[in-house]
Amino acid sequence: MTPESDAAERGAELSQALIPLFKGVVYQDSAPAAWQALLALQARVRDYVGVLGLELLLDEAEGYAYLRQRAPAEGEPERPRLVPRRQLSYPVSLLLALLRRKLAEHDAGGGDPRLVLAREQIVDLMRVFLAETSNEARLMDRMDTHINKVVELGFLRRLRGQEGQFEVRRILKAFVDAQWLAELDQRLADYRAHAADGETS
Question: Is the pTM here over 0.70, yes or no?
Answer without folding.
Answer: no
